[in-house]
Structure to design on (105 residues):
C-alpha cells in the first residue's frame, strides 16, 4: 500500500498523483499496525516465557502457537515500520538541512 507513495515522493511516478487522503490512511494504518504488532508480540512472548518457566514443561500444543504468535507480531511490526518509512517525504530546499524528511500526513 505504501509503494505508490514511495514512487511519488521519489519522483519516479508515471504522472499519476497520489491522493493525500490515501497517503494519510496508509501512514495511520502503518502506525497502528506497528503498535499492535509490538503489543501482540510482547503478549505472546510473555505467555511463552511463563509457559517455559514452569517446573513442568508444557506440551508442544501449548508452546508452538505462542511462538508463532510472537513471530507474527515481530513480522507485523517490521512490515509496518518499513511501510511507515516508505511514506517519509524527502526534505525540500526550504527545509532545515538536518537530514530528516517529514511524513506525508
Amino acid at each position: 500500500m505504501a509503494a505508490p507513495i514511495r514512487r511519488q515522493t521519489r519522483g519516479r511516478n508515471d504522472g499519476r498523483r497520489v491522493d493525500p487522503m490515501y497517503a494519510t490512511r496508509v501512514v495511520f494504518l502503518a502506525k497502528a499496525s506497528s503498535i499492535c504488532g509490538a503489543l501482540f508480540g510482547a503478549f505472546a512472548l510473555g505467555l511463552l516465557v511463563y509457559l517455559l518457566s514452569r517446573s513442568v514443561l508444557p506440551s508442544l500444543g501449548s508452546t508452538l502457537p505462542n511462538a508463532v504468535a510472537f513471530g507474527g507480531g515481530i513480522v507485523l511490526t517490521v512490515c509496518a515500520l518499513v511501510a511507515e518509512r516508505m511514506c517519509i517525504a524527502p526534505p525540500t530546499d526550504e527545509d532545515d538541512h538536518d537530514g530528516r524528511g517529514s511524513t506525508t500526513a
Notes: Residues 23 and 104 are 7 Å apart (CA to CA). The longest strand covers residues 88-89.
